[in-house]
């Protein structure tokens, strides 16, 4: 998962019309963020060509996270063409199955929307 460390890099990453971008908001001190690390590479591989994944440290970009109303972590937000499609945000630990269900919903939502 590529890491984005500036607002500008984030805004550029979410502009793609051709592929969904999923921003994963995390922190280094969050145990639930570390819980997902072992299985996320395989999840990312399963969506290769459909979704680009980016990691954002909430503590490094607090203004962006405030703007996007990111409170709980890890949080998953899907974008296409600079527009938010769907988000998976809760204070509870997220399982692999829940993350995969969110990603499937993101793909379904993107397929229903016209491109740029």
Describe the structure in your own words.
The chain is 37% helix and 25% strand. Strands 1-3-2-4-5 form a 5-stranded mixed β-sheet. By secondary structure, the chain is α/β, with parallel strands linked by helices. It has one domain (2-111): 3-Layer(aba) Sandwich (Glutaredoxin), CATH 3.40.30. The longest helix is centred in the last third of the chain and has 17 residues, at 96-112. A hairpin with a 2-residue loop joins strand 4 (75-80) and strand 5. The chain is globular.
Task: Give me the secondary-structure topology.
Blueprint: E1 2-4, H1 7-13, E2 20-26, H2 31-36, H3 40-46, E3 51-57, H4 62-67, E4 75-80, E5 83-88, H5 96-112
What is the CATH topology?
A: Glutaredoxin
CATH architecture: 3-Layer(aba) Sandwich
Number of domains: 1
Placed side by side, the strands forming the largest sheet appear as 1-3-2-4-5
Percent of residues in helices comes to: 25-40%
CATH domain class: Alpha Beta
Average pLDDT level: 94
Helix tally equals 5
In terms of DSSP E residues, the strand content is 25-35%
């Amino acid at each position: 998962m590529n890491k984005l460390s500036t607002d500008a890099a984030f805004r550029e990453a979410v502009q793609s019309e051709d592929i969904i971008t999923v921003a994963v908001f995390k922190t280094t001190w969050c145990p639930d963020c570390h819980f997902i690390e072992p299985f996320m590479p395989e999840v990312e591989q399963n969506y290769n060509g459909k979704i680009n994944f980016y990691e954002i440290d909430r503590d490094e970009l607090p203004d962006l996270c405030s703007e996007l109303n990111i409170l709980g972590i890890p949080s998953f937000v899907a974008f296409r063409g600079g527009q938010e499609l769907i988000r998976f945000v809760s204070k509870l630990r997220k399982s692999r199955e829940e993350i995969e269900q969110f990603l499937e919903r993101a793909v379904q939502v993107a397929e229903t929307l016209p491109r740029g």
